[in-house]
Amino acid sequence: MDKLIITAAICGAEVLKEHNPAVPYTVEECVREARSAYDAGASIIHLHVRYDNGTPTQDKERFRVIMEAIAHACPGVIIQPSTGGAVGMTNDERLQPTELNPEMATLDCGTLNFGGDEIFENTENTIKYFGKRMIQRGIKPELEVFDKSMIEMALRLEKKGYIQKPMHFDFVMGVNGGIGGSLRDFVFLRGSIPSDATYTVAGLGRYEMSLAAAAIIDGGHVRVGFEDNVYVSKGVLAKSNGELVQKVVRLARELGREIATPAEAREILSLPIKQ
């Protein structure tokens, strides 16, 4: 069984300081949270960026500044920018961080009802466009799937050449409009991906640690962080992203799973070698 890769989703595009005062907005705050997760055992920093007032942005220069600062503070860490952006952004606006040629970036594999009138739109042509861009730039996509149908989309587009093997999925579970967060749901998604694929599980809110345990036992990987959950236990706000990573590390050790370093994570994920 491979060592456990822990991803820290340090801020997201929706969660605010009103939900937890430690949610980072500024460059300095993002570095603080990334470093707390890295020191605790995270190999990957999944990154959305904000302006200092908390407004989410896909601005390439904002990504550049924050990514460079995190890379300096966390030697060797894998920085995985999000191409999800925020509802209403254009494809090219969302793709701006890929112009920085990161090792990985997210690729959302379907449309989702986020709640109310908010629709997170990812048409088939959008997914093809994003996939082609990542192949051209040598970026490993993390295939964000919120339901079984999105796995089917990814598999179909891999056959058409828009996504390359070996594939790496992120099961985002418990989101409004997507699959639930039960063990049954996890087993359903887990059994739907190719045998040579890897996967990470991101359980939202109360599903975070139960799904982490399932992935640890199964040989998969885990994502935690303020984007998905701001509590370290019921009713207790986490002091940092690092505190959430520490909880996963303790759980992994109890279950006999070693934690991957960034170098080991690169090997497990077959990341392309950047010149």
Structural overview:
The chain is α/β, with parallel strands linked by helices and 275 residues long. It has a single domain, classed as Aldolase class I (TIM Barrel, Alpha-Beta Barrel), CATH 3.20.20. Helix content is 36%, strand content 20%. It contains 9 helices and 14 strands. It has helices at residues 27-40, 60-73, 91-94, 124-137, 148-159, 183-190, 208-218, 241-254, 262-268, and strands at 6-9, 44-47, 49-50, 56-57, 78-81, 104-108, 112-115, 118-120, 140-145, 168-173, 198-203, 221-224, 231-233, 236-237. The strands form 4 sheets. An 8-stranded parallel beta sheet has the order 5-2-1-12-11-10-9-6, with helices on both faces. Helix 1 crosses helix 2. The protein is globular.
- Any idea of the CATH topology? TIM Barrel
Main beta sheet = 8 strands, parallel
Sequence stretches where pLDDT stays below 50 over 5 or more residues: none
How much of the sequence lies in strands comes to 15-25%
Strand arrangement in the largest pleated sheet: 5-2-1-12-11-10-9-6
